[in-house]
From TrEMBL:
GO terms for molecular function: proton transmembrane transporter activity. Its main location: mitochondrion. Keywords: CF(0), Coiled coil, Hydrogen ion transport, Ion transport, Membrane, Mitochondrion, Mitochondrion inner membrane, Transport. It holds the Pfam family Mt_ATP-synt_D. InterPro entries: ATP_synth_F0_dsu_mt (IPR008689), ATP_synth_F0_dsu_sf_mt (IPR036228). This is ATP synthase subunit d, mitochondrial. The lineage of its organism: Eukaryota, Viridiplantae, Streptophyta, Embryophyta, Tracheophyta.
Length: 168
């Protein structure tokens, strides 16, 4: 097996170990997304299995002596010479260097978006809790209690009264 093929198979194997499939599956909310995720996982597993089986094995060496006995040494020597003259070019990865910076910048953007999303989720959770609390207390709440929670509204109303602005 060539070094590049073995390297690809090793990287794919390591990648499959580091993917938290169960963690990602827990984040899926819709049925359609679950189906797409299952398809993605199946495709990944198929590709990974193919890489592990096809590219992780060295080809069996040819037993030239066996063929010399049955065919004749002149023809076998000709095939052996032709076989040994074949050079398989090494794979030179020209794509990864081109896309690696783009991928890395997308990862940075992803992390920033994740942090922003978590902060927004936290803010929304607090707002939901406040609205639920307000909903429960609304029927018995006094204006002073409401203004204690929202001093900016109290200030606005006080300014309007002080300036004799009654909204008309």
């Amino acid at each position: 097996m060539s070094g590049a093929g073995k390297k690809v198979a090793d990287v794919a194997f390591k990648a499959s170990k580091s993917i938290d499939w169960n963690g990602m599956a827990k984040m899926i909310v819709s049925e359609e997304a679950s189906r797409e995720f299952a398809t993605l996982r199946r495709a990944f597993d198929e590709v990974n299995t193919t890489l592990q089986t096809k590219f992780s094995q060295e080809p069996e060496p040819i037993d030239w002596e066996y063929y010399r006995k049955g065919i004749g040494s002149r023809l076998v020597d000709m095939y052996k010479e032709a076989y040994e003259s074949v050079e398989v070019p090494k794979y030179v990865d020209k794509v990864t260097p081109e896309y690696k910076p783009k991928f890395d910048s997308l990862l940075v953007e992803l992390k920033e978006a994740e942090q922003k999303s978590l902060k927004e989720s936290e803010r929304l959770e607090k707002e939901i809790a406040e609205v639920r609390e307000l909903k429960e207390k609304f029927s018995t709440m006094t204006a002073d209690e409401y203004f204690a929670k929202h001093p900016e509204l109290k200030q606005k109303f006080d300014d309007e009264i002080r300036n004799d602005y009654w909204g008309y």
